[in-house]
Amino acid sequence: MSAIEFKAPGPGVWELEQTHFGRPATRYVGEIFPPFLSKGFGEGTKRYGLLLDTLKMRTVNDFIYGKFCPVGAPEGAKGPPPKFMFKLITWLHPEIRRRIKTGPMVFEKKLWREDMKRWDEHYKPDSIARNSRLQKADIARLSDADFLKYLVEIRDNACEMIFRHHIFTIPSSFPVGHFLAQTRSWTGLSSGEILGLLKGAAPISRGIAAREFEGVQAALADAGIKADAYRGKPGHEVLEELKSKNGVGEALQQFLDVVGYRLVSGYDISEKYALEMPDMLLKTIFDGAADKQNRKAEFEKNRDALRAKVPESSRAKFDELLEEARFIHRLRDERGMFNDLWGTGLVRRAVLEAGRRLQESGVLPDAALAINANHDELVALLKGEKNPSVEELKRRQEWRDTKTIADAPPFLGGTPSGPPPVEWLPQKARANAMAVDTIIREIFDVSTKKAAAKTVEGIPVHPGVYEGTVRIVSGPKDFDRLQQGDVLVARNTGPAFNVVLPLLGAIVTDRGGQLSHAAIVAREYGIPAVVGTRDATTTFPDGARVRVNGDKGLVELLS
Hints:
By secondary structure, this protein is an alpha+beta fold. The protein contains 19 helices and twelve strands.
């Protein structure tokens, strides 16, 4: 590690991305993720009248770093200028003036409702159609020339899916941030107490294929098929056998068509898609519990209790903001499920097929090494070129296998000072800024509390106390070890983790706040969760028993 130098990838302060990537990125994703995230995110900030231009991202030694770029700020800015200068800029800068003028219109038009319509009527069905068509391709049977064309198409599709995901980053969260900021000012309650009212508003967070999952379980029950009949058999053989059974095969195939090629444990092509983990799928199908909660009654009870704490004069506004937050909330996970988690999973399938062909031709000793090449390198190898070498691909593999974000500096180029105080902003820009600042804080927050020995303290997400076995999940290799009732302990989670939610008793993460993906899925599934603990993955050994206290935000080692 001492020979590796970390330099800022440009002027300004760059922060290590620790919520979505726990390890160095592959060269493939490291090239396509940053520019298309920035492009999509920037469209959203402009549309919502934010004085934040975009989020720029770059790779440094394959680790991903990012910096928020305010409108009108110089490239090397490490914080806002003095108050007088800041106010002068907001008066004179034409783009800042335009965005400030846009700010109130966002609320007047409820712009997010237009964006939800765009999502439901255009982007979502079109993304499903694009990914479905690419998924149906029998890529193993394509000629070499047609496969090269497919590689270009699948790369371009992944870029578009990343872009589409981040077009909706601001609209998917803006009403939630506004509701949270306003309700806190009215009640003084914590974010966790308020965000519990979003439970039930994002059914996709309970499982991308919740309906299909329940269909498989019903078909198995009708056929009298139980897990015991298949214990000890290889998972892929069991799935094939079940597909052949009348009444079960169709339901199972419908489930697999939905979940099969979505990445499960992360956002990179180094992660696995669900079909690569047949044992995990079978545990979920046989042992997982379907969701049976009475969400409507629970929501109404909690809403009424919280509403009573809002000043009477503000209750009508509270009702309106809550309705808008619940209306938009499903978009948060849907934009990933139907866009890049699916599109990037299909990239992984194609890259592994490229690796298979390169192994057959004697270029690679192991097909999985292809994961370490970028798109252009893969194409070159398939055309007979010898660069990158096998040794270089192995070096990249070892780097990703042995390094984590603990091996990279949290900041490059200095330390950021944070956004300007909201009171510096013109009145028309304040509500928009507060909404987004609240969201950013609640997504990336971590606890600063110190816990006793053999205990971690984090942010309580969903109430309840649960005792169970720790299962440390650091990557795809760990998913098959999950058993019913385990406590998932991970650095972070993503939306696709919900394929294993029916197995889990509780969730604990090192990173993320009340609006992280782990918090959303735990809330939706109604299981105790503590997030942002900083070091749960290094405090508890795999297989240990812990008590997860979702009321107090504590996780204690029992044995």
